[in-house]
Amino acid sequence: MMFLINYIPEWTVHLGFLLGLGLIFTSFVLYFVPFVATYRLPILLVGIIVACAGSFVEGVYYSNNWWLTKVREMELKVAEAEAKAAQVNVQIVTKYVEKIKVVKEKTNENIKYIETYITKHDNSIVFPKSFIMLHDSASQNEVSGSTGSPDESPSDVKASELLSTVVENYGTCYELRETVVAWQDWYKAQKEVFENTFK
Predict the structure, then answer these.
(1) Environment class of residue 21 by beta-carbon count within 10 Å: exposed (0-12), middle (13-18) or buried (19+)?
(2) pLDDT per position as a tens digit, 147-188
(3) Coil, strand, or helix at residue 147?
(4) What is the pTM of this model?
(5) CB of 130 closer than 8 Å to CB of 150
(6) Which of 3, 16, 137, 187 has its CA at 20 to 30 Å from residue 51's CA atom?
(7) Nearest one of 17, 106, 111 to 60, comparing CA atoms
């Protein structure tokens, strides 16, 4: 029924309803007119049927228009919420980019420190292979595979290389931390925007 509403001009529904009322009125008031007196019952029945059908379709139109109005109101609210959400996104991304920039700057400064002060000690600091094996296992979240006595022979890993790896890993860790915090902030902000819009 609802899809037919799109094809029936609204004025015809009003006209049909009024026509039905007019026929009912005619059958009761103009009963003394010979034509009306002869066909009074059919006029009354047609009037009742047309008025009832018109009344029903009027109700359908009213309901349809009411829902269309609600849909338009909701579309406006969604558009408003999306606009606010976009503004919040810009703020969160800007804050996130700035925090990542600070983390990278600190990581780069620490790498420069290593290059300046630690590299010159590379030949005097020697790490045993067991130390490097434990470091590599821990970096993969694994337990060191060493069984029996540890390998104490010297490794080829330089102190500056090891520290650079550690500093970069810490930097990556803080970048990931800031990413998680940014996602949490984004979720909270979006939730607040949409909850406030649809109160």
Answers:
(1) middle
(2) 567 778 889 999 999 999 999 999 999 999 999 999 999 999
(3) coil
(4) 0.64
(5) yes
(6) 3
(7) 17
